[in-house]
Amino acid sequence: MNTPVPTPSSSAAARPLPRIALLATGGTIAGAAPDAANTAGYQAGVIGVAQLLAAVPGLGAIADIQAEQAASIDSKDMALALWTTLAQRVNTLLAQDDIDGVVITHGTDTLEETAYLLHLAVKSAKPVVMTAAMRPASALSADGPLNLLNAVTVAASPAAAGQGVLVAFNNRIHCARDVVKVSTYAVDAFQSPEIGALGWVQDGRVEFQRRALRPHTVATPFAAVERWPQVEIVASYAGVSRVAVDALVAAGVRGIVVAGTGNGSIHATLQQALAEAAAQGVAIVRASRVGSGHVMHNGAASDDALGFVSAGTLNPYKARVLLALALAQGTAERVALQGVFDRY
Description:
344 residues; alpha/beta; Rossmann fold; 8-stranded mixed sheet; disordered N terminus
């Protein structure tokens, strides 16, 4: 009597792979240099998404990939219009029943800003995972292929659902709100100062150690807009003048984020210019140029009297993203804005 041999049509083998949409936007991960030893003198965004995928054997065993070339830029040139297009495309893809998650390849220069924008503007609990590289695809020991493999692995994991936008880089999984670029050259260039990574990914295993506590994605009222309010950043430093603030106010900016020293402290000359700008209706947010920590709300003694808002734990670049979204939504009054920064 012959014993039936189990076939791949069993329930476990027949379970379909997750379908992941991959949006390529350029960056170093898609960069190329004249020779393999060159990791600095390269051109970003010149390699297409098909070539990126071809460099990562084994992706097909993790997920069914639907790839698109959304852009081919060096991320230093990221534009607000592309933010809007990217957010809208991610939302469209995630609304499809046959898409289980999205992976975005991006340049490292502005990755933390794009990640936070999407963290606030994406309206789905499905995984969205961003990744990048510090070495171009043409380099010896290029880090892009493994980062891409890990990003797809995270996006295909049920544990990534409901976590907001994630950044998978150098085997770690970061929350978009927390992650920042901390090195100009190292392959572990992305860290989450103070708080640490959410978890890690290695050899197909995904492990989360904590969850993001602040509201994100479906729990926010924000959306990327067609017309962005003009929000700029100025810095406080020894001997700073008020020229930049006066020029920005004259140009009609809606908001200014100041990268202050220490706990968001501001040179007296610059502070006077910003207080006058606040009195004219310009939203002023105090952040810090320091790499970690938070900016305390000074209450009646300073912020309330001057008309300033504290950025809390957001660095100046992420504070600009949140301020622009809040202003676009119609939130401009100082107390309401402080509530936005305290919540998100």
